[in-house]
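Input sequence (334 aa), recorded before submission:
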Amino acid sequence: MQTKKEGESTYTFASRPRPLQNRSKYRESVTEPSDGNGSYVNIMYDRRVVRGNTYAQTIIPVPAPKDPIEIQRQQEARRRAIARRRAKMQFRTSTPEAVEGRQHVDIQTELYLEELSDTVEESTVECQTDAFLDKPASPVFIPAKTGRDVGTQIEEGELFDFDLEVRPLLETLVGKTVEQSLQEVMEEEELASLRAQQRAYEELRNLELVEVQRLEKREHRHRQEKERRLRQQREVLRRERETAEKVAARAFSRQYLVDLLPSVYTTLKEHGYFYDPVERDLETVFLPWLMAQANGTLEKHCAARAIVDMLIRDVAQRKSHLYQQMADKSPDPS
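Predicted structure, token format:
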């Protein structure tokens, strides 16, 4: 941005601050950027350098400040774009990790190999610019004198009489001064009266406040006494109600227990909680043993009968078989 004001002979230059660009490992070909923002090697390609006469340079107007809302909107859009770019980088598939015992190595896949080194080749280039010439100070413009000088003689008393002309001014000043003084005195008296009325009002207000505080304290004491007596009365009523409930419960329990004890004893006796030990021993020990012995004896008798029946059946079958054989062997009488 170039600025040059009228009446100034020096040239000033100012540019907006900008962040430095990342420097690449290898030197790229130096060309003139199209947008005017880039790193220049040759100063002759920089548009900010003015060559030649600077007196007739066009003054570039200073850009108006941008709207804060527009700046905030642009920053928000830039942040969203950066977040979107980061999300794409995260979801982008990358080269898998090398297996155990191997490692990835960068190699050249071009047709012609190029020797790579960490040392960057450098070269020095110089150029000569024109000397900076200061504009000499412009001479002060003095217009040429034209016409003739003419003088007029005025005697004393010809234009006005000072004593006569100054009288209205003095009367006005004195009148205004006296009027202002009277107004100030009246204002002071009015202020004094207002202060007296204010003091009287403050005293009356203080008295009323004291009376109000006394009435509030008395009302507070009455309210506390009323609440205390109400609490005492509620406590007395609660105790009377509890006493009446206890008396009623005691009478009800006595009346209920009169018929409850015989019924309880009868129920317990029916359910077998009161029993004769000998009878219980006979029922639980002797009778089960006797039934077990009788069942064993009956089972033995049944087994013996079954064995006898089997023997008898076998003997009868053998005799029947022998008789059948004898009948078959005997001759026919006819």
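Checked by second reader. The two ends are 166 Å apart (CA to CA).
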